[in-house]
Amino acid sequence: MDIRLRRNYWIIILIIVSISSTLYFFGDEMIIPYTTDSGYVTKMTRFNIENNVDLFSENMIHEIDVDMDWDDYESLLKTYEETGEKDYFKTDITIDGVTVEDVGIRLKGQLTLQTTFQGSNQMDSMQLPFLVKFDEYVDGQCYQGITELCIRIGSSYALLEEPLALYTHSISGAVVPEWAYASVKISELDPAYYVICENIDESYLINYFDDYEGVLYKAGNSVTFAYKGEDQTEYMEDFEQKTKKNEEDFAPFIAFLKFIDESSDDEFEEQLGDWVDIDALITMMAVNDLVENSDSFSGMNSNYYLYYDQRTEKFLILAWDMNLAFGAMMGQGDMQRGGAFGNMDDRGNNTGIPPGDMQEMNMENMINFTPTEGMNMNASMMQQDNKSKFTPPDGDFGNLTRPERMSEIGDMPDMGDMAGGNFPGEMQGYGNLGEGVERGEMNSQNSAENALKDRFFANENFSALYKERYEEIANGIYCNDLLLEKLDLIAETFTEYNSEYSIMDQETYDSEVEDMRNYIEEKQAENCDD
């Protein structure tokens, strides 16, 4: 060996050990370049915390422990209760045995969160939805390639609706967040059952799109796609720019709205494909209709993002937040689920027992709920007067709730001009299919007002494309056993975990699984000839 090499051998060993230690503790480091309008090149460094357990493995119940100080937890609740603000708090989080230090956690959601607060008299003990932000306090920190993790509740105890809806979108070719189930312990509360999924943010774009440097916009509730002129401030109440805030603005989106508003019928048909991915738009709307996800772009004009690809100069509409799918919006799900409205012990921990008589009281609370100052809630959701008995019309219900649950709805508030579709032949409500309109067809009177949808379905050729794609997707998701097999896998995984840890009443869970199974089988009979 060369004498110089022998003399410095220990230095080489030290360097190797140092590099190995760095990789072990910090995981992969990904350098992502992007260019601003001025040509200035910056770099974003991501320190990726790894785990040998895939965060979104669906064949297990993940375990998450949020080591949040109880005083911080109470402050988090009090801040929201008094101001409507969802502030971040610093904490450590352990996911499947791996601890990530100094992450941010805050409440997440709008209607679900507000309804949960209104329905409980124990503000410090409710099962609530959260957002974990891994890089809130440590720049560049992420976990398994994501910077934000949603911890979500839903419309039932078993939380079947959103995962099955996301799965249905995925097998139909749409880009949707990955998901899994988790037992989540928040501060001193007992573990509770949640859905976890990716949040749609910059890291989501990086993970799913070749051109991740585009502009991401998040739609508010019940927005109408109306062109309001060139003043960008006119759009900030309805849409929020989520990426490239200091580099881009609303200009591409405003130009799109102007095209929708001012183009002739011929121009709209010929040029719409230059502005938006038409196939993705049709797929997203058709799947929403097929899984009765009315709280969506297809129905109430809610829960979606727009991604502007600067390379193709086209928009892609991304579906999001599906916990009211499978008819849950109008009574299929309990809305007063588990820890949010269920029976609790003296510390407020969820017992997993259905709330029973509490359901009726909490539905009344939801109807008569008045938002506190600082809460941004669409006033149209707050109709209180003129309650009337709703009798469903004969024939095809279209995009409504499960037929066997209609009798449980009882007295319904008059929705008036509430954003949404309509019950066939009845009031403006939640469906996309009107009286005399075949399944797979749609027109401007059958969903909440939206200039893009109105013009799209007023066009004969686009309507025909929608119907064709609707029938194709219906065949792909219902004329086989894919959904039933996914449901069985979810139920088997939960039951095995629950037999050891007892995080929910098993009979309640089994009942909701059977209810979902009946729904899928009815859809199979409805959509398939064989």
Automatic annotation (TrEMBL):
Keyword Membrane: yes
Keywords from the UniProt entry: Membrane, Transmembrane, Transmembrane helix
Pfam families: CotH (PF08757)
PANTHER family: INNER SPORE COAT PROTEIN H
Protein name: Spore coat assembly protein
Residue spans crossing the bilayer: 9-27
